[in-house]
Amino acid sequence: MKRMVKDVAEAIQARLMGEPTVEVSGIASIRSASAGSLVFVDDEKNLHSALASPAAAVIAGEFAATAQSSKPLLISAQPKLAFARAARLLAAGHPHSSAIHTSAIIHSSARLGVGVSLGEGVVIAEDAEIGDGTSIGANSVIGASVKIGRSCEIYSNVTIYPHTSLGNLVIVHAGAVLGSDGFGYVRDEASGRYEKFPQVGRLEIGDEVEIGANATVDRGALDVTRIGRGTKIDNLVHIGHNVQIGEDVVIAAQTGLSGSAIVENNVIIGGQVGIGEQGHLQEGTILGGQSGILPKKVLRGKGVVFWGTPARPISEYLKQLAVLSRLAKQSKPKE
Amino acid sequence: MKRMVKDVAEAIQARLMGEPTVEVSGIASIRSASAGSLVFVDDEKNLHSALASPAAAVIAGEFAATAQSSKPLLISAQPKLAFARAARLLAAGHPHSSAIHTSAIIHSSARLGVGVSLGEGVVIAEDAEIGDGTSIGANSVIGASVKIGRSCEIYSNVTIYPHTSLGNLVIVHAGAVLGSDGFGYVRDEASGRYEKFPQVGRLEIGDEVEIGANATVDRGALDVTRIGRGTKIDNLVHIGHNVQIGEDVVIAAQTGLSGSAIVENNVIIGGQVGIGEQGHLQEGTILGGQSGILPKKVLRGKGVVFWGTPARPISEYLKQLAVLSRLAKQSKPKE
Amino acid sequence: MKRMVKDVAEAIQARLMGEPTVEVSGIASIRSASAGSLVFVDDEKNLHSALASPAAAVIAGEFAATAQSSKPLLISAQPKLAFARAARLLAAGHPHSSAIHTSAIIHSSARLGVGVSLGEGVVIAEDAEIGDGTSIGANSVIGASVKIGRSCEIYSNVTIYPHTSLGNLVIVHAGAVLGSDGFGYVRDEASGRYEKFPQVGRLEIGDEVEIGANATVDRGALDVTRIGRGTKIDNLVHIGHNVQIGEDVVIAAQTGLSGSAIVENNVIIGGQVGIGEQGHLQEGTILGGQSGILPKKVLRGKGVVFWGTPARPISEYLKQLAVLSRLAKQSKPKE
Predict the structure, then answer these.
(1) What is the ipTM of this complex?
(2) Using CB atoms, which residue from B87, B103, B175 is nearest to A175?
(3) Nearest CA of chain C to the CA of B182: how many Å?
């Protein structure tokens, strides 16, 4: 939907420099910009190419305030954030259709809110509740007594096990599995065989959580697995049973959290990290990619970066790598 | 289903102390117990909180035999195992419905046993066989000539490729893919292009195997990939073509086994472990999380724990980590 | 379909030795060969068992030219490649049916080529285009404006997000997700909350690409994620937004590529490798399993093998491992 830059600037609280009535119709990268595009620059070295692009207008940091520009500039202290918000504003003209496809199969006891959209072949089991404005993609399966809040976006081929609850504004990408049984067995000492430990708990996901494609999140064994508000989980991440994740946590792709791990607010976890059972990441800790945290280990320190397996403070780890490299260079070749 | 503790004690072969006619209606953790709950304690330090909880009865080890308790105690040498069995007993009152949803699409040549349950949108292809009492979740796809035993539980959005066979009492979680093509190509030296090597073998899965959500198991290239009885596989695990896995093996989440790997009985593999082509884990070996086993490497020793990449005995690896840490501390800071 | 060995030899450009009218009906491994099987040997030490097997004929290297054999031999400079091609020839007698199942749901604006096959419950959204001879497995979901070329094989429960394009002869295994949103957020410095950065780019996949089961490939944020012709991607691989992958690249299972990584032609990547944001693998580099490449790191050298985290030339890494092992053995035990 087309909007005048003065309206965009007002909505995103940016300071407008230049012609207020120029119209923008969508966002783009500098490279792919065309007439009507709104682009952004958060690094001064890219300002020139933004101004030279066909874009209609540019969101930029304070550094651009003195630039010569024939295009309107929207000056913001956080230009990337301002751009993300402008993108939402410009996309708002393309609302979801709120249709329920005739092939969706909805149990008579399920409750659907206003403006719910269900794709082809969607299954909604008994006693499930779907909030207002939530959209569910084709062939997704929503189990019995699942509760999904309002304005959620569930993509296709997602499976949500019974009794799972999702807050509002949750996004779940295709193929994700929520609320599956945890990995728990008891070995019979007599027979040597494993018997399944009951996996009958639940999974609770807070507001504004996003879960990536083909990620898996297990329900609690007897209690509850929890993911706090605003936490973002990438593709193919595994979350084990009884895990407790706080708010505003970021977990990159293919990371795995073993059972009963605890991740406090504002933790940042890189890709392919492994966290052992009951591993505990305290508030604001940061883990480098492929790190490994031993079972029951506690990592602490806001903003402290850990790396390696077992994870240690990154400065320590880098020093160890440097020492090892030096020793190998000094050692006489024997081959 | 409610049961008297004397009946539970008898079924799980526990020694009952206290009032035999107290009724329990379900299992719970100590934390979430309510009136009617059956809980367990396998560590003496938790006995007090179990006894102080609202639970109706407590399964505990021999250590509890002398405790003062107003609740019935079910004393067992393996309290966690006894609890798991009690959970099954108490859940048995909630049988699966054995309905075949009208939207399931079943090829006329497929054979369904007695008491089979098929969810919405399930597809059963030609010549497939589904055993008595097996349940298949919504939108799962069972390929041609697949054979599934009795009392299996296949969750939603599972795909089973043609000719795969599953034993009895197998559990397959949502999104898992069984019997897909292995990763095999031949590079044409002339063109430099990869051509697909035939992936036309099969996958055979034994009785009582459990496979986690979004796990993938490839069929053999020309021969058979096999997973033995009682083996438990966690979420997002990858099993390559021609892999041979024995009985009672445990494989934690996100581990990957390359083509033709061999895993003997009673092996325990942590999460995010990588096993190279034809890597071979002999009976009873144990691998720490994130370990890496080189192609063709053989690891041996019942109960021996290996860790690191390349995997080595854990005592050796820990010593190496300690030495490196000491050297780094001794080295003069140069930054 | 049965064929005479002289016809097979001609088709795969092998030199025939022995009776030209012997018939073969299918391929097999030496171990599983039966009468009518065609087998291959690329290592001279297996020649004897091939000749002693029940197989009807043997594809072998030049080393077999002087062997005594009662079976026809098809001599090829690349016997494994010749075998792969013979497999395709013999399978050609079993064509796909090109039926569109009545339960498939096809938007009226979608365009289907000649000989398209759609399984049960397949969803084809508006403006999608499916090329001639392409087959799509049951319950897969093809988003709006997706373009799929000719002779592709899309297995079951696959999700393709809107605007993704696939070339010709592409194979996508079950459960794969193509074109999902990348993992991009902007943190508002004021609130500490993450807001979604727009993920509105596209995904383009070239001809003859194969993508494994439950793999995930994200679309570009603002631009395009690209996978070049002939590239082969294994199960559970993650490809982030804006990644650029060249031609004839091989990526083994569970490897993850962070956003904006660049992988040039003919690169070979082992399993469980992690590549940081903007990591760059130049043409022909080779990465050992579980390697980690730091963000923005460039690796170069055709045929050079890298290993470890951070990835370094393998000879260097092995020397470091050896030095560390030696030091640990020399150090006095203190425990």
Answers:
(1) 0.96
(2) B175
(3) 8
